[in-house]
Amino acid sequence: MPQTAPPAAPAYAVEAIGLTKEYRSGAGRGPVLALDHVDLAIPRGSFFGLLGPNGAGKSTFINILAALVIKSAGVARIWGADVDDEPRTARSAIGVVPQELSIDPFFTPREMLELYAGFYGVPQAARRTDAILAAVGLESVAGAPARSLSGGMRRRLLVAKAMVHDPPVLVLDEPTAGVDIELRRQLWDHLRHLNARGTTIVLTTHYLEEAEQLCDRIAIIHRGRVVALDTTANLVRRFDRKELSVSVAQEVTAVPVALRAFDAEVRPYRELHIRYRPSQTPIAAILAAVQEAGLTILDLSTEESDLEEVFLALTSETARGTDEAARLMIGP
Ligand code: ADP
Predict the structure, then answer these.
(1) Is there an atom of ligand 1 within 6 Å of 165 CB?
(2) How do 73-78 and 81-82 pair as beta strands?
(3) Could you give phi then psi for residue 202, rounded to 5 degrees?
């Protein structure tokens, strides 16, 4: 058990209210507003994704929670404990897995976890070293020097290290950057398992697939501001874009007049491709227009937008992107 036990189950594992960070300028450079009044409440038990392009402010957010960066303004609470007023309690409730793979090559995984448990003041009787090693699939190499571990194993050892004091909140900064696909899936399984057992997980990623596969809620951060915050399913649904491909019997060289009102294009030479908003354009209206053009439909398929499109629209510099951002912030 940690020295100061975190309070029993609060509604939110992490809360940020007006969280702001301004880095002072370096030589000749102006100050950088890395976080600009961020309000974020991460529900207890959730698997939460913090998404955003490079420089968005994700690491700054995590580093404030990890007490590695001092905020300029606002409030941050971990498991109900204010990071300013109750720093020890806040720190005991969180485990942070950093991005870089810095591991002392001479210690074994078991020695390393014992060392960290000591560092966190976990009494011998309360240590769960073997259980943690098993939870991240490292029991077979528990006694091997860390230098002999593969990249994926090192990454899992860092996850294990962040868990020695049994924190209810686990935060991972880009956990699978540079990890190959198979190991990434293994790590995903471990994280899902931990989440199923009740650990709240917060991760930053710019692998959209990772966020879509793992996270139940997502915040998209752009230039220090939260530009979208919703369940993963809602975020994709709210984007309200679909693409319809229609194969026709006739050869088509230009978009028929009947279809000019739609965002349509010809794919040489027997396919029409139409982008539309399901909430505004019923698919039946498009199909009726295809028939009105005298075309015989042979086959059709639709494709929904995925998180990647949502992300690009929200963070792109184009006017269209800005419209999408505004619409998503307001909601459907
Ligand atoms: P992300 O993790 O989303 O890539 P960061 O939180 O690392 O974003 O960075 C947010 C902004 O703050 C960027 O403009 C970055 O250059 C700046 N920044 C980050 N750390 C520092 C620092 N120690 N000093 C000055 N500026 C920084």
Answers:
(1) no
(2) antiparallel
(3) -120, 125
In this prediction, residue 323 carries a pLDDT of 45
Prior bond of 276 cis (ω within 30°): no
Q: Is 34 in the pocket of ligand 1 (CB under 6 A)?
A: yes
What is residue 5's DSSP assignment? P
Residue 70 has what DSSP assignment?
A: -
98 close to ligand 1 (CB < 6 Angstrom): no
Helix and strand tally (H, E) in the chain? 11, 14
In this prediction, residue 7 carries a pLDDT of: 57
Computed over every residue of the chain, the mean pLDDT equals 85
Which of 36, 54, 59 has the most ligand 1 atoms within 8 A of CB, as the residue to mutate? 59
User: Measuring CA to CA, which residue among 93, 91, 42 is closest to residue 68?
Assistant: 91
Q: Please give the domain boundaries of the chain with CATH numbers for all domains.
A: 12-93+167-236 (3.40.50.300), 240-304 (3.30.70.270)
Q: Ligand 1 pocket check: which of 20, 21, 23, 99 to mutate, most ligand atoms within 8 Å of Cβ?
A: 23
Burial 113-150 (b: 16+ CB within 10 A, else e): bbebbeebebeeeebbbeebbebbbbeebbeeebeebe
User: Tokens 């997980």, residue?
Assistant: 201
Please provide the size of the chain in residues. 332
Distance from the alpha carbon of residue 13 to the mean position of ligand 1, in angstroms: 24
What is the β-pairing status of strands 81-82 and 169-173? Answer: unpaired
Q: Is 32 in the pocket of ligand 1 (CB under 6 A)?
A: yes
- pTM of the entire structure? 0.75
Phi, psi of 233 (to 5 degrees): -60, -45
The residue whose two tokens read 């899992």 is 156
